[in-house]
Design a protein that fits this description.
The protein has 330 residues and is an alpha/beta fold. Helices cover 36% and strands 20% of the residues. Strands 1, 2, 3, 4, 5, 6, 7, 8, 9 and 10 form a ten-stranded mixed beta sheet that branches. The protein starts with a helix and ends in a 5-residue tail after the last helix. Bound molecules: glutamic acid.
Length: 330
Amino acid sequence: MKKWFFLSAALLLTLSVGCSQPAEETSATKEKKTTFITIGTGGITGVYYPTGGAIARIVNKKREEYGIRATVESTGGSVFNVNAIMAGDLEFGIVQSDRQFQAVNGLKEWEYKPQKDLRAVFSIHPESVTLLAAVDSGIKSISDLKGKRVNIGNPGSGQRGNAIDALEAAGISWQKDLKAESVKAAEAPGLLQDERIDAFFYTVGHPSGAFKEATSGRRKTQFVSITETDALVQKYPYYAKSYIPKGLYPGATNTQDTPTFGVKATFCTSAKVSDQVVYAMVKEIFENFEEFKKLHPAYQVLTKKSMLEGLSAPIHPGAMMYYKEAGLMK
Ligand code: GLU
């Protein structure tokens, strides 16, 4: 399909250059139509935003060849991105692997409404469900959150569902036992430093601007372990144990790694986006993999193989075309 597309495009170009045609017609044929695509990300202090930027940067380098112009949008996060892709407002979006699973299977926010046209492209960095608390709040474990002011995330975010799962696993109701806030992750560090909240949850890759900001203020902070994860990991296929490495945020008081659980960031699109566009995006990221990996420290652990794991929506045919060609999939 793709080969046919490029061959015929090349043929058309050769023919049009070869024949003597009226001047305007020739330049019209030569001028490639630009396809504009927008990538939905998250808050600007997260890792999705620079990730969208990294993908756009690599793809835009080949603008002449593919005629694709990618731009990035800061959004409310995973749930927002799925819905905007499905509505046709975004062509691509970064989505937590658990949210991809829920959307495709009609669960949680999409209960009884499976998003049949959602397509997986590849997965990216691991994300940890991260709980940061002010030291003066006395919060040392998740059960200490009872009665505290805790940001669990805005409704369009991925982390809100993870915070609720973590709280429920510890026997805490976010509606009854907490003073739950629902603000965007980008606002939480400021609220914590201003003593307007005691702790906040954010599911994000590390290091992130949000935790750099939250841990480097006057108010001392610490990452809180989430250890009630056995049941969660058993119950949900998309959760795995993870940890926040010590030393990533020198401002935090932790002297050990912080155990928790996590998911993966994934790159998603719609079945309605063309094979040519998805193929070009995937090809450029995979063929410039070492360059891509250097664009954020959260990508250190990536391998091409790991980027094909954690996908639950059908893989977009344009992406599949590349994976087969590159021998990454059969
Ligand atoms: N995982 C978050 C979400 O889905 C976003 C994290 C980020 O922006 O890096 O809402």
